[in-house]
Amino acid sequence: MDAQELPLFPLNVVLFPEMLLPLHIFEERYKQMMDECLEGNRIFGVVLARGGGKRSRSERPESVGTTAYIQEVQRLPEGRLNLLAVGQERFRILRLTQERPFLRAEVEFLSDLPEDPASLTPLVEGVTEQAQEYFRLSLSLSWHRPREVLLPSEPELLSFAIAGQLQIEVEERQRLLELTSTRERLEELAGILARENEKLGEELERRLRRRGNGQDDHSLLPRPGEE
Fold first, then answer.
1. Less crowded by CB within 10 Å, the N or C end of the chain?
2. What residues does 8 pair with on adjacent strands?
3. What is the tens place of the pLDDT at every residue in 43-72?
4. Are residues 47 and 95 both part of a single domain?
5. Domains held by the chain: number
6. Sign of the CA dihedral 6, 79, 164, 48?
7. Do the strands 81-98 and 64-75 form a parallel or antiparallel pair, or are they unpaired?
8. Does one domain contain both 103 and 157?
């Protein structure tokens, strides 16, 4: 695909395809950027700010990001905006073409390498099972009754859907985004899920022991009205 130019929004967020992204826009430069997007194709690029810890103010972007399509807009006083965007295509930055008042770059779009879906079936089944366990444990630890989460069966979409919901460090999410092999991404997810499920399981066991010892711990009970 030919190179295209995109406005860039550096955030402490890694956006995956099909992932929803709510945003509150209040800085003047990003108000201007969003106004331009809304007058055009409603698409901008989301990139992780390099060095992207929570306190980092750096706006130098990582080289790989994801386009976001603005689905919903709520206009607020003083030109502020609430937006709901959804991730679409991954891209690699070829060169920055503008730095003021906001970043703009020439990009090329990325796709995973072709693979036989049938050869990925055992991996897909295993990762799906691990992901459902992750969601079950997470819900149990956050006052919600466990339930099965609807996940896509197509391998590439499955890998993005799971990656987008994992509560892990942004650097690890960025690595998953940059991979161009569905197999490698699923294999990485299998390792991450095994690690995270072990941690969540240990925390759940600790809380159950506390309850067994007569200590109050309501974190495993549903909130009122949640059945």
1. C
2. 45
3. 999 999 986 444 444 568 999 999 999 999
4. yes
5. 2
6. positive
7. antiparallel
8. no
